[in-house]
Design brief:
alpha/beta, 23% helix
Length: 373
């Protein structure tokens, strides 16, 4: 079992795009508390997704390539663990909730996997600065409640020496997924030891923290997200991190369309990060369904890896599947490429009020990562 512990801090159609899992963008003026109301329509997310798919443009596609050769070696299960990350740590969890520290604020959000009872006393939870209430489904909207004093929409955070904005959004997210720090730290290490500027493609890149970490380490980065709001937020984070001159291309486009075009153009990347949503929409109404399009997405990613590629990283949130599902898909996709596929879960360890305790591990997502041996 492989564990990675970090002391600082890592999914977008939501792209980390527009729509469910990470519809993390709110257009209200800065400095005002966010009060996001429930959507007017009463359809379930699944029904809405079917309706959107029926009305959406046909997804661009191509046949899957039949791979030959040996499957890569495997390492399973791998548990990549973070106990804290810069301005973030998980304080406590339980009864379907989690209490987190994000910079100066303590925040309570729903967490379905926290089946146990909280470790800390009720008064600690009651002292939170912000509480997300409303739909407890990961795809659902709700509102933020500020028990002490109304807070501004944004506030400064820092992870891996990257400065960025936290933001209270209508879909409970705050602009960063700190469990991903283990992947970001890996990319940072690869870029620093490569001895050359490596090319990194960040698909479903959301607010750009991963892209900024890679660029700060010397990588040339292409960041793709279908949400204009996410791209705008990422550019704000770029300015906050004083990386305006870093070699980053910000692309607002459907991720599948982009990688298919890159394949036709013959463009190649040394590292690809893919953090797709369960369901998402592109800027022109394109619909992404993880279970339907993941095989093709990985197949195309394999084709746009460079001859000296370092790795292909996939994370999957909010899906009813075993990590073995994406593990075996990754191994089939990378037949004949050598290397090793390691798969498992990303977890965050409770660290208590002081950020130094060693509490329970909270599972956050599945992952599969092909790396060159």
């Amino acid at each position: 079992m492989k564990k990675t512990f970090e002391r600082r801090e890592p999914r977008s159609q939501k792209t980390k795009g527009e729509g469910p899992r990470r519809e993390r963008h709110d257009e209200r003026p800065r400095g005002k508390p966010v009060r996001a109301e429930k959507p007017a329509r009463s359809e379930t997310p699944a029904k809405a997704a079917r309706q959107d798919a029926a009305a959406a443009p046909a997804a661009e596609t191509r046949p899957l390539i039949r791979r030959s050769g040996e499957r890569p070696a495997e390492r399973v299960p791998v548990i990549l663990e973070s106990t804290g990350a810069g301005d973030f740590h998980l304080i406590d969890s339980g009864q379907g909730l989690k209490l987190e520290q994000y910079g100066p604020y303590r925040i309570v959000r729903p967490e379905a996997q926290a089946l146990w009872q909280p470790s800390l006393a009720p008064h600690v939870w009651e002292g939170a600065d912000a509480v997300f209430t409303g739909d407890t489904d990961e795809d659902g909207m709700g509102r933020w409640r500020f028990p002490k004093v109304a807070l501004g929409e944004t506030w400064p955070l820092s992870l891996l020496d990257i400065d960025f904005l936290g933001r209270f959004t209508a879909f409970r997210h705050v602009g960063v997924f700190p469990e991903q720090i283990v992947h970001w730290s890996w990319v940072k290490a690869q870029a620093e030891r490569a001895g050359r500027p490596i090319r990194v493609l960040n698909l479903f890149g959301y607010t750009g923290v991963a892209s900024l970490v890679a660029a700060a380490a010397g990588a040339e980065v292409t960041h793709v997200d279908a949400s204009k709001k996410a791209i705008g937020w990422a550019r704000e984070n770029q300015a906050l991190s004083r990386l305006e001159r870093a070699p980053i291309r910000w692309i607002c486009e459907d991720a599948m369309k982009f990688i298919l075009r890159e394949e036709r153009r013959g463009n190649r990347y040394d590292i690809i990060l893919a953090d797709p949503p369960k369901f998402g929409r592109g800027p022109n109404g394109e619909v992404f369904h993880l279970f339907e399009q993941l095989p093709l997405m990985l197949d195309v990613c394999r084709e746009i890896l460079s001859p000296d590629a370092i790795g292909l990283v996939l994370t999957a949130y909010s899906i009813r599947a075993s990590f073995y599902s994406i593990h075996e898909l990754m191994r089939e996709t990378m037949r004949g490429a050598g290397g090793v596929v390691e798969s498992g879960e990303l977890v965050i360890r409770e660290a208590g009020l002081d950020g130094k305790s060693h509490g329970r591990a909270l599972s956050t997502s599945l992952f599969s990562r092909w790396v060159r041996a």
